[in-house]
Structure prediction request, 443 residues.
Amino acid sequence: MIFKLKICSPSLILLDMEKTLKNIHTVSSLTQEIKNLFEINFKFIKVKGEVSNLKKQSSGHVYFTLKDKNSAISVALFAGNARHTLIPKDGDEVVIEGEVSLYAPRGSYQVIAKRIAKTGAGDLLMKLHLLKEELSAKGYFDKERKKALPKFPKKIGVVTSGTGSVIKDIIHVLSRRYPNFNLLLNPVAVQGPGAEIEIAKAIHDFNKHSLVDVMIVGRGGGSLEDLFCFNERIVADAIYQSEIPVISACGHETDFTIADFVADVRAPTPSAAAEIAVPDKQIIQENLSKIKAAITHGTSSRIKLHKAALSRIKSTRCFESPYSMLSIFIQRLDDLVTGVDQGMERFIKHKKHFLNEKKKTLPLFSPTVKIKGAREKINSIQEHLSSVNPKNLLKKGYSLLFKENSKEIITSYKQVKKDENILIQLSSGEVTAQIKTIKEVKK
Prediction:
């Protein structure tokens, strides 16, 4: 068997050593990489266990161990989160929401707790999540349906405990911001069995009787179990159906409930709700004072401006000597009046002349003259009729011939026959004659 030996140069050996050294971690760098892995992969976790070795620091931070039958893990609850969640005690079975991190100085991992609830709260969270998805799909959270708050409410309704600090805080804020407020408290239970029914009824009562202009619904901080009455469907329905604008103020700033999502406005705290519900009277008065000053200044400036403009107008030629501009119109008017007067005189004179001429012909239209003329005309007509009267003609020697039987007047020889009897009408009687000879007379 033949072996081949490869001899590396010193430079190649040096490069391999540098590459190897680069892959070596320091304790800090390795710890940091592990910390990054924890924080990336375990950013939000829920873990259940029993609390032991709980310690509260003067700074407000809380440290304890969470364990089960086989393992244990350290938990840190910092003061900022501790103010808004349950503080457990040794022996409590809890569910922790938070993230996994690494405490570099000791090289040990731990859970940074953000919310803590006793065992059973996990079911509440699941119930809350399902209801939230259902109501969101039905449009309960849509911005388009949310009502605007009145700018200057006359009556403010509050649905909360009648004995807690919440109502005191609200009254304190209202007294400071809006001294002349009218508040109507409908006291209800804000936790425990049946609380959701009382809250929903209070909201319905305010609407049924139109008692207030805006409504604050809420309570102070507490655990998930304490706040859960504000996560019930009956409360969500009452807020959704409310015609009165609703401000939700359930818990502290980091607490969110279904009521917050359905309400027209969500306030981080009850005190903040009071500030949202009413304007600050002092600020309003200051703004009104500024507006009044601006109006006064603006009006004064406009008056001065118009006075100056009026003075300029008054100093113009037309106002100093108005006849210089009006003389032409005055004279033209006089000319028109004169022309009208002369025209009327001529018209009257013409009408007088026309009337006089008519007076001259008036006798011609006298009834006496008319009657005399009519009589003369009648007499003339009578004379004419008399002249053509057949009897008068007969007196002059004329006669009329009639057929004896039919009394038909005979005007032609063709109407008679030989030996036919005829009747002759004379002026003084009638004569019967017989035709002996018929002779045509040629013209």
